[in-house]
Amino acid sequence: MTSGSYRRSWLRNLGFLVGLCTVGVLGNASHAQFGLVRGVVGGVSIDAEGVVQSATQAQKDASLAELRQAVAGAQGAVAKPQAMRMISLRKLQEAIMEHRSADKTLPEEILFLAGLQRIEYVFVYPQENDIVIAGPAEGWEVRGDGSVVGTKSSRPVVRVEDLMTAFRTVEAARQAPISVSIDPTPEGSQRLNNLLRGMVANGPSFQPQIVEAAVRQAFGPQQVTFTTVATDTRMAQTLVAADYRMKLLAMSLEASPVDGLPSYLEMTRNVQMNKGSQPRWWIACQYDAIRHSEDGLSWKLDGRGVKAMTEEELVGKDGTRSAAKKTNQFAQKWADLFTSKFDELSMHNASFGELRNAIDMNVVATLIAAQQLDKSAGLDLSVLRGTKGDIETSGRLTPKTIPAHCSLLKARSGWVVAASGGVEINPWQIVAQSRQADATLVSKRAPAINSANTQWWWD
Q: What pTM value is reported for the model?
């Protein structure tokens, strides 16, 4: 076999998987009130230009040690696992302002919302001028990957910083969904097409390492695009991290931490796919229902909260992408598997649990605004909404570009380029379309308030 024919055969039986480098949730020390270390997390750092860079082992070790020194973990009653922990938004704001007035950083109990794992309930109490959010909770600890998770469930805790961002994003989300998209540039896709055609035509011998380097250089950095959410917030970084982690799993660039979730490339290894067609995956929010009592004072978020979506894209010779008419059954099957494994994945990879927490918080903040629950309660939410207290949730470094990362896998379908996609959260649509009456919620609301309790959280 000549070198040229060998090259053509090798290329026909090779899957080119072009992805990104690992993305974590990280940033700089933007505001003292939150008081947490902001260093290297998830294996990467972001430079001042918004470029995601791989962190050295020494950087990761130093950042983890610093975080563990800063976070003591839950102590006392707040460390006990509870199926239902209540948090008063009125008293939470008062506690935040008390520390703000004294120019103190917020304590861990506030930063991690008393160990709340998810927001499942919203209760309105007009007589107490209060709204209470509630859900399962437990103590917290710093895990080896630099995430703050529950000591029992290993799922990430809900953060007050993200709750504030959600309340401050409500009105903008009325106009357009909250989203992030990580996409190759048309120029990069075109350069890659030209490179692969040239490799077949020119035919000198080569090594896989050289091919990988050439593919990465041709494809170039992928662009990170946001809508609605402030790009320099922790929530924005969470969206990026979860989206990219999903693509790593889909494209065999990271091994699945759970059983029963093969990569998309493994599923299509011996399948002939449509030439020029690439899958696109994104994560959207989906609840079974938002249940409510007849009096509108008790609400419950019911369901997983997330769903992976997919569609096919056609990549033209000029690198532009357009929606394909046909559905890729393998991409759909992978999306369905990812959705079914989401809760389990959240125990292993904090970025997925962080995303679900962000979705819950945006839906809750929108529910309160859409149903005017704050007016029903006679509660001023100006601290959470950012019109009082001068507490900033912005100021982190914004991810702007992510370098290409290449992996090679034998396949019948030729080369495959990692698809575009992202995360889309449309809380106003969810609140408008998912409401269902539920008379049983009345009994949940009655024991959830304790007028004599001076704490901002209780069990």
A: 0.86
